[in-house]
Each structure stands twice: as C-alpha cells, then as structure tokens.
Write a structure and sequence with these properties.
Strands 2-8-7-6-5-3-4 form a seven-stranded mixed beta sheet, sandwiched between helices. A three-stranded antiparallel beta sheet has the order 9-12-11. The chain has a two-stranded parallel sheet with strand order 1-10. About 45% of the residues are buried. About 40% of the residues lie in helices and about 15% in strands. The chain is of the alpha/beta class. The protein is globular and about 60 Å long.
C-alpha cells in the first residue's frame, strides 16, 4: 500500500465497534456474508423479494410518462421543499393523492421513513405518550425518538394490552401499520379508533403496504373501512405499490401548513423533483384502474397462504405478505440456501428488523405470479418443511 492510500488509524472505540459488527453480522455466518445476502436469482426463478405488489415497475405507460417528463422539465428546483410551499409551486399530485385516500391534505416527502419521522416530530410535544404496536415499522419508533416523545409499546394487535397502557399513561398518540411488513397481519383499525375515542388519542396509520392494493380503486384500508374521518393522520411509502421512491403524509389542512417548516426531514432534504411527480401521477392513474391486478394479487396470496398452512407452516398472514418464521440465524441461513438452490427467493428479515432468533423469510406476492409459480413455491416449501435439518416456528 502506498503512502497516498494509507489512512490514519481510527479511534479505538470506533475500530472496536466496527469490528464487532463485522463479527456479529458477517463473519459468523457460513457464507461469510450478511444474512440478507444470498444468491442472485437466475432468470427463471420465482422472486418474491420486491414490494412491487401490482408489478408496475416496468409498466410502459408509466415509463413513457417519466421519460417525457425528464426531457420536458428543466425547472431549477434542486432545493429544500421549504422554499416551494406557495400555491403555484406545490404539485397537483398532493391534492390528487389526498382526494384518492379521502383526507383533507397531503404533503410529499423524500421517503416513507422521512414521512413518519417528520410527522411525529411535528405533532408530538416532548414527553407525549405514544402507543406503538411492537411490530410497527422502525421509522415510527425513530419518529418517537426524534420527537423526544415517550414510547409505550403494546403487544401486536392486542387491544387488551393497549387498553392497559392507555389506562396507565393517558391521552396521547396511537401509531400502527395497517398491514404489517414482516408477517402480513392487519391492524384492527376499528377497535383502535374506538380505543382512541375513549382515551382522547390521535391515530396515525402507516398505509405503506395497503395503499394501491386494498379497498376500492386501491385507496387503502382506512378508506375501505370508512375511517378516513376518524383516523387523524395517514403516512405512506411510495416505494411499494407505487414502485418508485418518495413518501406522503396525509391529514388535516393545519398539518400541510406547518410540517414543511417544522419537520427536519422536510427542511433539510431536497424536494421530490417535478419529473418524479409526473411518474407518481401516472402511476396513481394506473393503480386506480388496476382492479384485475388486485384480484390476481389476492388470488395468488390466498393460494400461497392456504397451501403453506396445509403443509403445516404457522402462517399469520392476512395479506399479500407471507412469512416463513425460521427462528435462529443459523437455521434461517440454511432455509434461505435450501430455497434459493431450488429457485425460490424471498427476503430475509433479521436484526434489527426482527428480534434476536425471530428471523423470517418474507414472501412478497405480486400480481404477475402465475399458478405455476405458486405451485413451485409450495413444492419447494413442502420439501423444506420435511427436511430433517431445517426448522420452522
């Protein structure tokens, strides 16, 4: 190594921390790679690693609209969105998305992560009690921390435990996912609303995994249940069914008038670009008319879930997200390799997305999957279930 490429030694506490991560997360694995890094899928494999539930990432009309917008837009808007909050600068897509979901206003953000952190930072004074489902997305937990609020977790979808927490800590904010991204369960939103009414709480619902897939025209679970006037705030990632990037925060008009000037992710990040907004507008148009894709999605999800339960798997899914619960990291690595060697590719979820020894392999069903794909997955999973060296929770 030449003198020019040498770097100065890191402080010992940083060196120790990085080496700990290398040992804990990488070198202890059989493959000497992180647990999420398996084989690359071959061309004909069944791949269920993407959240592109309606299979829109290669949709021609969406791509063409995006390409045309890139050529047409020369707006110099590489800046924070804080400077673009006048009526002329705000994208019409925000109004369209608010109307689609049934909320009063909408603000685009850089991601679903930024949406959740920015919302909670804006609405929660320090020490606000925030009641959060154990399985809620990490961005909601991080939002609580950013707001200096107080997290009071409740057991997954357990309304009795939520009630006990509310009785103990009082009025605050209840935050849940509508569809949970790990095991595909659905939040009891009606019960949560009733609990919020009783204890004078606001309700935040992350609809990242239900917007576009659930409800009439894909308008989401809150809309499908007729709860848009009862739920105070909705957040979404537009990197799931919308198959792109960005996020959105939906709520009352007061929120859109204040959050851009309060939330750190909104202030200290560049705005979503005009050509990206055009793509999102076209995607929304396609999603509204994609009833056939939604039907195909849930038909495949039902076939997969039913088949896995018949084999003997403990499947808790109520949606297009289906998880094999594999337990320890060593066992998860073996299950992953077994599936991938037989051309079935799911997404490994491990620390910090799950608890220690609570690892899963998540299958994200999409609308383009065929009965033959489902049959192949079930055949391979049946072999895995009966394999003497593989275990499932």
């Amino acid at each position: 190594m030449s003198d020019k490429t040498k770097t100065k030694p890191l402080p010992s506490f940083i060196e120790e921390r990085l080496n700990f991560y290398i040992q804990d997360l990488i070198t202890q694995n059989q493959s000497q790679k992180h647990l999420v890094l398996g084989k690359r899928p071959p061309r004909n494999a069944v791949v269920m690693q993407s959240n592109d539930y309606l299979a829109l990432s290669h949709n021609k009309p969406i791509q063409q609209a995006h390409q045309a917008a890139i050529s047409e837009h020369d707006d110099n808007v590489v800046m924070s969105a804080i400077f673009l909050q006048d009526d002329e600068s705000k994208p019409a897509f925000e109004t369209e998305l608010a109307s689609y979901v049934g909320m009063e206003s909408c603000l685009l953000s850089q991601s679903g992560w930024a949406a959740n952190i920015g919302l909670l930072q804006t609405i929660c004074p320090p020490s606000t009690p925030v009641y959060i489902d154990f399985f809620a997305h990490m961005s909601l937990w991080e939002g609580i921390r950013a707001a200096c609020a107080l997290a009071h977790p409740f057991m997954h979808n357990n309304m009795n435990h939520l009630r006990k927490q509310l009785e103990r800590h009082g009025s605050g904010v209840i935050v849940v996912d509508s569809v949970y991204s790990t095991i595909g369960t659905i939040a009891p939103l009606r019960d949560i609303y009733e609990m919020a009414q009783e204890f004078d709480c606001a309700v935040v619902v992350d609809e990242s995994h239900s917007l576009g897939t659930h409800g009439e025209n894909g308008a989401g679970l809150v809309h499908a249940l007729g709860l848009t006037n009862q739920v105070d705030f909705i957040t979404v990632s537009l990197a799931k069914t919308f198959a792109y990037r960005a996020g959105a925060i939906l709520g009352p008009k007061q929120l859109s008038e204040t959050l851009p000037f309060v939330a750190y992710p909104a202030i200290f990040s560049s705005t979503v670009l005009p050509q990206e907004v055009v793509r999102l507008e076209k995607t929304l148009e396609v999603i509204k008319g994609a009833e056939d894709k939604r039907e195909a999605l849930f038909k495949s999800a039902k076939s997969l879930t039913t088949g896995l339960k018949r084999i003997g798997f403990n499947i808790r899914s109520e949606s297009q997200i289906v998880a094999l619960e594999c337990g320890s990291e060593r066992n998860t690595e073996r299950v992953r390799d077994f599936l991938e060697e037989r051309d079935v590719f799911g997404a490994v979820f491990c620390r910090p997305a799950t608890g220690k020894n609570k690892n899963i392999i998540r299958f994200s069903v999409n609308a383009d999957m065929t009965p033959r794909n489902i049959d192949h997955v079930l055949t391979v999973c049946h072999e895995a279930y009966n394999h003497p060296e593989l275990e499932f929770v």
